[in-house]
Amino acid sequence: MLEVLIFATLNGLVTGLLLFMLASGLTLIFSMMGVLNFAHASFYMLGAYFAFSISQYLGFWAGLIFAPLIVGSVGALVERYGLRRVHKSGHVAELVFTFGLAFLVEEAIQFIWGRDTKNYQSPDILDFPLFTLFGQEFSAYRGFMIAISLGIFICLYRVLTRSRIGIIIQAAITHPNTVANLGHNVPLIFMGVFGVGTALAGLAGVIAGPVLTTFPGMAAVLGSIVFVIVVIGGLGSLAGAFIASLLIGLLQSYAIASDVGMPELLNLIGVSFESSHPLNDLWTLTLPQVAPILPFLLLVLVLIFRPTGLLGKREE
Asked: How far is Cα 174 from Cα 23, in angstroms, rounded to an integer?
């Protein structure tokens, strides 16, 4: 039991921190620009595919460096020549634009790279067990994923809260005219923020590609969960997204690792069904089977009891 708990916790941390790496870019874009980017997971997928192509010629580490930069540049161009033009029409136009962009990116990836799964591998230098516990190995690459994710959280938090750049960025949202009068290029700031946010999504794709496999549907796998994380954490809250990511990662990991059935859970709350009851099929389910819907159940509970999210601020 202790063995299962420890490795479920470690796997939950890996999953949660990977989700945060993806959600951090979306949170950054929303908190700075007020744009909920439906195509964010598509930039995550682009990062994995660019890294795969680069790694074929220059190796994994070159892909880790250059793929996020390429994705960030693509994101900056999307903001400059697309999103900025529809921004004046309001949030609905932005949502429609990014929603259409997500389909465009997916079709472009299938056209360029094909529909098959790519053999994107982690580097050989990290192909060893970081430690062995209870006879099970925890890979060095997963430890590398944890280190990168924690580094991103620390850097982003310090930049946004402790640096002059962060002050300028946040001021550009609430007082754009004042920031412009001080000599700062506000449209350039917004383009840079969008580029950095999409680059973070691309970095998440580079890191996740070898573990979660690189295929055309990988954006759809995590896309909806990322929005769940942002809402649960509180729209625009980086710390909230970090906590929500860990909660969801651990919740799903514990559920998958357990062998508890629905009868045990329902008995805890005193619920039972006759054999002829329409809901009797619930008794055949196990907790690992319902693990995929647990983040959405958590979302419903958070919206009921705290609509602003865990660390969200209520608008005055």
From this structure: 23
Say if CB 180 and CB 186 are below 8 A apart.
yes
Q: What is the pLDDT of residues 138-197, one digit of tens each?
A: 889 999 999 998 998 888 888 877 777 777 777 776 677 787 777 777 788 888 888 999
Distance CA 90, CA 3 (A): 52
Q: What is the pLDDT of residues 36-89, one digit of tens each?
A: 788 899 999 999 999 999 999 999 999 999 999 999 999 999 999 988 888 778
Residue type, 149: S
CB atoms within 10 A of CB 77: 15
- As a whole number of angstroms, the distance between CA 198 and CA 142 comes to 23
Both structure tokens of 225? 């969960």
d(CA 218, CA 235): 24
pLDDT at 93: 87
What is the residue extent of each domain of the chain? 2-219
The helix (H) or strand (E) run that includes residue 101 is: helix 91-113
What number of residues does the chain have? Answer: 316
Tokens of 64: 């880790």
Residue 246: in which H helix or E strand, if any?
Answer: helix 238-257
C-alpha distances in Å from residue 168, one per residue of 26, 159, 283: 19, 11, 56
- Mean model confidence pLDDT for the chain: 84
Residues in contact with 226: Cβ distance below 8 Å, sequence separation at least 6, in sequence order: 19, 22, 23, 26, 40, 41
What is the three-class DSSP state of 35?
coil
Give the three-class secondary structure for 247.
helix
Tens-place pLDDT, residues 280-316:
666 667 777 788 888 998 999 998 988 888 887 655 4
The one-letter amino acid code at 69 reads L
> For 219-229, how does the pLDDT look when each residue is reduced to its tens digit (9 = 90+)?
888 888 988 99
